[in-house]
Amino acid sequence: MDERAAVPVTLPRHNPTIAYWQDPPDPEIADYLSSSQVPEIADTVIIGSGITGSFVAWNLLQSPDHGHITMLEARQACSGATGRNGGHTKAASYRSFHDNAHSLGTDAAVKIARLEYDNIKAVHAFARKYNIDCDLYSGDTVDIIYDQAQWDNSVKSIGAMKKAMPELLDTVARYEIWGKEEAREKFFVGGEECVGAITYEAGSLSAYKFVVGVLKMVVQRGGELYTNTPATKLEKGEDGMWSVQTPRGVVKAKRVVLATNGYSGFLCEKFQGKIVPLRGQITAHRPGKNQPVGGLPTTYSFIYKNGYEYMIPRPQGSKHAGDIVIGGGLVMAKDEGVEEFGATDDTTINQDISKYLTETTPRYFGSDWGDDHADGRIRQQWTGIMGYSPDGFPFVGEVPGEKNLWTAASFQGHGMVLCFLCARALVAIMGGEEETLKTWFPDAFKVSEERLKKKFAGRLHTKPLDIGTKP
After folding, report:
1. Three-class DSSP category at 111
2. How would you list the strands of the sheet with 378-388, edge to edge?
3. Most C-beta atoms within 10 A of its C-beta, which of 20, 255, 279, 283?
4. pLDDT by residue (tens digit) across 119-129?
């Protein structure tokens, strides 16, 4: 993994695979330019127009003295990880809770689980409040588990969550456990035999349509957006101002925010090897002939010995309603997908993962899948670049030793349950209001020299561990 973490991070590539959500791109915002050249000076430059960048801008704009805000995007608007994900707003906090309690303490683990749940609720509430049309679904999700050790670990972790959060048994710690026969009947998983299933509150949406809606409001409220305008270099001047070089000129800024996730190491050397890109892959399947009329009742994850897939059915009333969007399969590539770490090339797909994901739906649903759609099983497949840290937590705050260079990045493929509130927290820290975060924002998420010294070892919380010996 040392070799993969050392691969130099690049800018986003031209002509990426076409993501299901961006087909076609939004005609108003995809290639938006506030002017032909970037301004000479700005108060805040935000690099990245995904969910993090858009909500940093949104939160800054809530202050009457927000100043001049300029957002730069290397490609089309929201064309990175946010616009290329699987569509889930799903925490699965039980999968990491016991490890977090062991390494950070129970109170910190509770705070992380609460943030993940609150983030989901906040995203959905925001979409409804501002009438953003983003194919929103709120309801329970199900994890179908195929490995006994994963099952045993999951049940233990859920028990620990319920014990630690007795006042939250209807929200954060609400889990229901189903036996294998119940799971087969209720969730149409008539393929490979599972051990059991776990249900809990989650949701889904088109993150692309959601963020496009936010970006439009940002622009309407005075924020500037420059798409197809990569930041190619950052330099700190003797006057304390940051110079951001782009093909449309140089903009000097009092402060810069890196909302660049897996690409952060390109602009800030301190994140090379500390925010490691990981290429993820997703497919969109046309529904099989035996799928339920009206579509599947919930969203899914399929968890096995050393990995998982995640899946959403497209809700009724949406484009391609009933389609199955399923991603993952990393460990099915050569050497469990190690070559996908450090990769920033989302112009191609991994053929081994493609073959595996193509076969997932009939394998999991069995006779409940039936014959393929007349137009073929696969409608679309694409890749996207995520960002992973050595300890499995995001980096939020001011970059150590780099005054007025701020970041919220490295979301572990978990951004839809982290980014919204991490952006809010970052803006509070930038405004000198860090004290207001004590009750809800985890200290483990704050960027520090100590965290930047840790060694990257790959994805965490994916394989069963001996949590029975942990407190």
Report:
1. helix
2. 176-179, 196-204, 137-145, 299-304, 307-313, 324-328, 276-285, 378-388
3. 283
4. 999 999 999 99
